[in-house]
Task: structure prediction
Amino acid sequence: MTRFQGKTVLVTGGAKGIGAATAKRFASEGATVFIADFDETAAQETAEAIGGHAVRCDVTDREDVEAAVEAAVSHGGSLDVLVTCAGIIRDNMLFKMSDEDWDGVIDTHLKGTFFAARAAQKHMVEQKSGKMVLISSTSALGNRGQVNYSTAKAGLQGLTKTLAIELGPFNVNVNCVAPGFIATAMTQQTAERMGVSFEQFAAAVSEQVPLKRVGQPEDVAGTIAYLCSDDASYVSGQVIYVAGGPRA
Ligand code: NDP
Result:
């Protein structure tokens, strides 16, 4: 398939996990892909593997984010797709949550996505076309031990809907994908914190999921690609749960 031939795509947090699978999916369908990630070495490796480009970028730094968008635009002449996957978890119960862990998670997810969306819209509005996909989570519905993360992920759903309203008149679609449990470094980190092996953790989660398995990064990447394709040209402001069932 070459649905994204001639399109320039920027994926934040694209070095690993869901972002890397998304970058790979777009590249395999003809796009020029820019991976903007904290982890420069991993970003380079992922970019090389898919024939894309890597930009070192901390999404909590406005200048870094604006430079990443400019790098993509100056190479491809446009920015057609923005996917904001950069994310961290710093889980703890409310009574033990530090200011640093609150700020770190809120800044990475919410401010980082705000910076990226604001920098990207400038070009998409001028072009009168563009697609944005923001990454939320089933944790937006509430999750014990994730007061910071669930707040950020719920906020991203509100951000999606407002961006869809503001940018729709410029032919820019903005949607949100909210994954459930996906097998990545992030969920491995959760298993470690809980003191169980990843396999045990994934097996226990699978029992609770109607489709009886955990998700893979490719499950999310496919949904993101659909939302950025012509097939979804009249879909905007929506939150799609990719969770093997209706809830976490
Ligand atoms: P990974 O940890 O595998 O990948 C996240 C990537 O984002 C890493 O490369 C990470 O770099 C990078 N990153 C972190 N902070 C920054 C930053 N400040 N600036 C730039 N890049 C950064 O996680 P996932 O692929 O699992 O998660 C991707 C997104 O999906 C996140 O938003 C996450 O919240 C969301 N999500 C994940 C779910 C899951 O079950 N895995 C479920 C629901 C949502 P580094 O490794 O160096 O920190």
User: Anything to note?
Assistant: Residues 12-13, 15-19, 37-39, 42, 57-60, 85-88, 108, 112, 135, 137, 179, 181-182, 184-187 surround NDP (CB under 6 Å). Residues 114 and 159 are 8 Å apart (CA to CA).
